[in-house]
Design goal:
Radius of gyration: 19 Å
Number of helices: 10
Number of strands: 10
Distance between the termini: 32 Å
Helix content: 25-40%
Largest sheet: 10 strands, mixed
Strand content: 15-25%
Length: about 300
């Protein structure tokens, strides 16, 4: 797929009107919250409004397709994620966009660790107890996610593989549905972003067992990482970055990249990211492009190793 409209020859005077950031997930998701955190700050830097537009569906591919098909003039951005840019291509052979060909990188924003959680009603209080619970309760051996191809789905498969277990994967259409099922016991466990899980663990509805990230989480400082617990090389981290349609003028990309860079250097932005459980992750366009290629390879290798999401 390529952008449907030819790009203008230059970006002189850019921007001259409002921009939009397409969020390929529903309102209230981690990706949406991050978009609404950075949009007004980038807007202040470039001097034009930025509208956040949610286009959810098909594990984020509907929003990505819409962004890829937009006019390549710099006025439409995609808040891309690890699932959209790396996970989906590994799992969906008929994907309706090509992350390598349909987009140009603007810059990376942040990373967010996936937290392993269970419903409090399970009585499970540790990862070893969860493993034993799954072994002795095969009828309840399942895990939830917010869609095939995302970081939560792959994290669940990697955990089960490392534990020598099998379980059914139940993908949900929204995070609210997934959390309701986790609380109610329809699914046994789930990996998800720290910010969304924090209030549910504080209320006692869910219990956090481990941090899937590579370092301790600011929202769950006492929670050990999966690597600490013996799951070597385990890394369940979602990443978020801005992209524009391919063929967008480089001058326009540079304007947005500079604004994003300035935003991430602001003390207030860093504080807000930390409050949301995000680790700032500034990467220039070329570095982000190289990282995306590497992560797509990692996803493909893991999917090949596990034979898909269900281990």
């Amino acid at each position: 797929m390529t952008a449907l409209a030819a790009a203008p020859a230059s970006a002189q005077g850019f921007p001259s009107r409002p921009l939009r950031i397409i969020v390929p997930y529903a309102s209230g998701t981690t990706t949406d919250l991050l978009a609404r955190l950075i949009a007004p700050r980038i807007s202040a830097s470039i001097g034009k409004p930025i509208v956040v537009e949610n286009k959810s569906g098909a594990s984020g591919s509907m929003g990505a397709q819409a962004a890829a098909a937009a006019t390549a003039d710099g006025y439409t951005l995609l808040l891309g994620t690890s699932g959209i840019m790396a996970g989906n291509p590994a799992l969906m052979p008929t994907l309706n966009y090509d992350p390598a060909k349909d987009f140009a990188a603007v810059g990376a924003i942040a990373q967010n660790p996936q937290i392993l959680a269970v419903g409090a009603a399970t009585g499970v209080r540790s990862v070893p107890e969860l493993v034993e619970f799954l072994k002795t309760n095969p009828a309840k051996a399942n895990y939830g996610s917010t869609g095939i191809g995302g970081a939560p789905a792959l994290a669940g498969a990697v955990f089960l593989h490392g534990s020598g277990l099998k379980a059914n994967h139940i993908p949900y259409n929204s995070v609210s549905q997934a959390m309701t099922s986790l609380i109610g016991g329809e699914v046994t466990f789930m990996f998800y972003g720290s910010l969304a899980l924090l209030p549910l663990t504080k209320s006692g509805q869910l219990r956090a067992l481990a941090n899937g990230g590579t370092r301790r989480s600011g929202l769950f400082p006492d929670l050990k990482t999966m690597a600490d617990l013996g799951y070597r090389d385990f890394a369940a981290v979602s990443w978020f970055a801005l992209y524009v349609p391919a063929q967008t003028p480089r001058d326009a990309i540079r304007v947005i990249t500079r604004a994003l860079d300035a935003t991430l250097k602001e003390a207030d932005t860093a504080a807000r990211l930390a409050q949301g459980g995000f680790d700032p992750w500034p990467l220039a366009p070329d570095a982000l492009t190289a990282f995306g290629e590497k992560d797509r390879l990692r996803y493909r290798e893991q999917v090949k190793k596990y034979g898909g999401i269900d281990p």
